[in-house]
Structure prediction request, 505 residues.
Amino acid sequence: MLRKNPSNPTVNVTADYIVIGAGAVGMAFADTILTETDSTVAIIDKHHKPGGHWNVAYPFVTLHQPSNFYGVSSRELSEGIQDQVGLNKGLGDLASGAEVSAYFDKVMRHQFLPTGRVEYFPMCRFSGFNTGLDADADQIKSTSKSTAKSPNKSPTKSTGQFTNILSGQHYEAHAHKKFVDCTYLKTTVPSTHTPNFDIASGAQFIPLNTLAMLEQTPEGYVIIGGGKTGIDACLFLLENGVNPDAIQWIISRDAWLLNRKNTQPSEAFFESTMGAQAAQFESLAHASSIDDAFSRLESSGYFLRLDKNIRPEMFHGATISELELAQLRRIKNTIRMGRVTAVGTHEIILEKGTIPTSPNHIHVDCSASAISNLEMKPIFEDHLITPQTVRSYQPVFSAAFIAHIEATLETTAEKNALCRVVPLPNKDTDYFIFTAAFMMNQYNWSQNPELKNWLLNNRLDGFSKLVAGIQEDDTEKRAIMKRLRNHAMPAMAKLNQFIAELETQ
Ligand SMILES: Cc1cc2nc3c(=O)[nH]c(=O)nc-3n(C[C@H](O)[C@H](O)[C@H](O)COP(=O)(O)OP(=O)(O)OC[C@H]3O[C@@H](n4cnc5c(N)ncnc54)[C@H](O)[C@@H]3O)c2cc1C
Prediction:
């Protein structure tokens, strides 16, 4: 528990925007504000470096989507190459976690701080608006809650408290314009995650980070988690020559997966990238039921799944290459008996049964869900901006877009009208809700010439440029775009029909 340091009186920090969280979202937001306005920005983060969860991710983590459209708008992250080797062969480069971390560090040191308009407060924990110091609180308190708890405090959201974790120095932050809460999505990674099941003291249980530090070969590996980190753990073991039969993979829910080939924002991949969009709209437009929609989305190549015999119940937007999928299918010992409730020394208890294990097996925790807060709230409020996704699968593009809207529009209502939250998906049918929200935003943006132009010139939007670059005589690309346009409205109608059906279930 941190204490106030009596010899360190509170220091006031004032800026137009007080950004809480120097992760990818906070950095992308600040970058656009700095580029498009004269505003000042104070950035507060409890980590020692910008980059958020990338600083504590497992050593072999990489981006899941191409580097071309990750990072901040003003600085390229991609090396502009396609991988020549490995399981991402033939596809756009994927920055490693260390590269992403170093990139954000450079953005801060070489771009943000030299403007003279940025103050950066690393190792500082933001504790709430107007409520005084609560150094243990990881969750930022909203004014409504804090007002209720502390009726004597001013209810304004333009003042907040933070403390340097190392020195104990206490700060009061004053935002001339707004606070920007870039912690709302609560990204969790294995190293910062506490499993919600019991672990016997004699069981070998490690977070994914430790897998790369093993000194001895265990009897076998038990990977707990069927999401993207579980996939990464399995691929890491297979790439390092582990016999697939030495891996037990506990998958509580199978997921629909996205094919990375369809996410490449470059000319060479126009057919797969834009073709997948067209196939998605066609599949939806022609679907006779929710089940039929999933079948069509799969047969058109939009969705992939691990096992053709198991109907996925989850959808988190995890992206995978076909080579990676082929590797994963080599693991035959997959356990689908629900969630783990306890890891013992000789057995693992799951919701639907028990499997044997041993003290010589390594159990790898991949049960953290990357985004743990799926509730939506308005992005723009009078004194607060809460970045969330406004385009599917793209939190950093969304943050830059939200900053542009903040910089160019006046009222909270008109800003929110163009920034409807695209809710983060969890279960399979969330796909319909989030695709409808995404399409609605795209449509609204396309009606606004200024926004169309911004999208065309923004690095984080690779797709507008791809479409705008089609030559008059390029009949193949034009045919793909025609399929896409012709099926967009019928697809939207079907999405609304399926959403209405789901609401009555
Ligand atoms: C393995 C993995 C791969 C991914 N690959 C991709 C990809 O390829 N493309 C893509 O678009 N997305 C990808 N994502 C999604 C990724 O989560 C987002 O792109 C993005 O990094 C999220 O950034 P963030 O700023 O929201 O969260 P974070 O990185 O968690 O940053 C939040 C920051 O807030 C700080 N903070 C929290 N509470 C406080 C407090 N009280 N006081 C001060 N500071 C606080 C934290 O220290 C942290 O630095 C991936 C995610 C994972 C886990």
Observations:
- The domain at 188-256+313-370 is CATH 3.50.50.60 (FAD/NAD(P)-binding domain).
